[in-house]
Amino acid sequence: MRGMGVKIEVSAGDITRTRVDGILISLCEDSERLGLPTSAVVAVDALIGGAIGTLLDSRGLKGKPNEVGVLHSLGNLPARLIAVCGLGRRSELNVDRVRDAVAEGCRALRRLGCRTIATTLMGAGAGGLDDLVSARAMAEGAVLGLYQFTKYKASEVGDVERLDIVVRDPAAVGRVRAAADAGVILATATNLSRDMTNEPANYMTPTRMAEVAQELGAKHGFAVTVLDRPKMEEMGMGGLLSVAQGSAEPPKFIRLDYRGGPKGATPLCLIGKAITFDSGGISIKPSEGLQEMKDDMAGGAGVIAALSAIAQLKVPANVTCLIPATENLPGGRAFRPGDILRTVGGKTVEVISTDAEGRLILADAIGYGVKEGFSPLIDVATLTGACRVALGTAYSGVFTNRQELADRFLRAGARGGEKMWQLPLADEYRELNKSQIADIKNVGNRFGGAITAALFLSEFAGETPWLHVDIAGTTDSSKDVGIMVKGATGVPVRTLFEFVRGE
Ligand code: BES
Ligand code: ZN
Ligand code: ZN
């Protein structure tokens, strides 16, 4: 199965005999020396004169998470290089560690020129993980970890072409292959979200986002409807239209419909903020780091990518995605602080800051979702710098008006391998969004900014079950580590998929 470049194959055999450039093996931090005698590490070690054991004894290699030691086989194996990947403590071994270990191992071998890699199922057997869980995680680890955004580089960048997952039992090949294929689809969808987000704002305009959605809909089988300005006016989308005023790029309200579930069952609704560039508008942002604001459409990219995986894996659910897409620029027709606008549900909003634009376009999308009777509504947005301050760059913030929804969503995050942390929808702060002259204003006060933003959104959901994910901290990775590659992360594509698929 083909991912963003690497093809994942599953076969029965023995990795000490597989003809590839490099092999991956793994060990735990506290393995009794090399673990059980049946493991691949022991077999490989025996063929290379005990080099791995010697390294372990001398503490040159420890088996820590994300650690990789690369050895040369010196002709004792068909493979030229051996990457020994750390899985951390055996008692803490989980699927996240496996994903990260494969990602690190594959990257280390790629740096050394390997084009083909073989591996056994990491964490399975003595590690205690189910074979199929390991296979899916390994495929994800390879496809995510090897991701590169090279479109604008003139020089050819070498890539790993093939990862062979080698199992012992020929009867298991079919099942392991199916699990790996599902991993490839999910990771490829995540990489699609990364690609869209890494694209600069002069390419990834609202119009281009709509085209990408249309191409994906035709390919994977979901309907795509794109609303333009006149239709937005008819629908009363004052939030989206106001934010779009200052830009020459036409805004788009993108709707995707996938119907894999029972006829007539209420669709779940995924909503993604898609500001293709957030300058702040008239409340303009400082110029330092402003280039990062091309990422402000990551919520929209995430829901489009998640639906692609849902459709490809034919999940039996009815899902509609809503993506309000526009730039936020301070042009001559730009909306201003002090303006009052009217949203889809009829509520009026006093604009305090044109930089709090995400909640304005989401107010319209949430209002639209409520009107259509979708339930629950899940919105994903790079909404507040405050969320990044509160939770840092590892955890996305989760808010809801139904605890049961958050419980399910957090479990979906754990299965998907994305960290989610619930923050309170604190009723005490609701009054901070009160306006003197409109129904609500778009900024609270200095404190609890992620919470007052969520409270603002909750007003538009009303009684409809709703959950909000603030990904302002988690959209971008500053370094290559585990499955993360510098640049867009693709969070929370895999959580959305797991949530829709259910337990
Ligand atoms: N897109 C930003 C939030 C953001 C900040 C995302 C940093 C990623 C990294 C959002 O539109 C914004 O500007 N929010 C303001 C809200 C404020 C004006 C109430 C913020 O967080 O400063
Ligand atoms: Zn903003
Ligand atoms: Zn924004």
Folded structure, characterized:
The protein has 503 residues and is of the alpha/beta class. Helix content is 35%, strand content 19%. Strands 7, 8, 9, 10, 11, 14, 15, 16 and 18 form a nine-stranded mixed beta sheet that branches. Strand 15 (396-400), helix 12 and strand 16 form a beta-alpha-beta unit. Helix 4 (131-145) runs parallel beside helix 5, helix 9 crosses helix 14 and helix 10 packs parallel to helix 13.
Mean pLDDT, all residues: 96
Secondary structure: helix percent:
25-40%
Low-confidence stretches: none
Distance N terminus to C terminus?
Answer: 25 Å
Q: Any idea what the radius of gyration is? A: 24 Å
Q: Helical region count?
A: 14
How many E-type strands?
20
Bound molecules: ligand BES, zinc ion
Q: Which class best fits the helix and strand makeup?
A: alpha/beta
Let me know the largest β-sheet. 9 strands, mixed
Question: In percent terms, what proportion of residues is strand?
Answer: 15-25%
Apparent shape: elongated
Short description:
This protein has helices at 40-47, 51-57, 95-111, 131-145, 173-198, 206-220, 229-235, 238-244, 298-312, 358-372, 385-391, 403-416, 449-461, 493-501; strands at residues 7-12, 22-27, 68-72, 81-86, 116-119, 162-167, 223-227, 252-259, 268-272, 274-278, 318-328, 340-342, 348-350, 377-381, 396-400, 420-422, 440-441, 466-470, 476-477, 487-488. With 503 residues, it is of the alpha/beta class. The site of ligand BES has 16 residues, from helix 11.
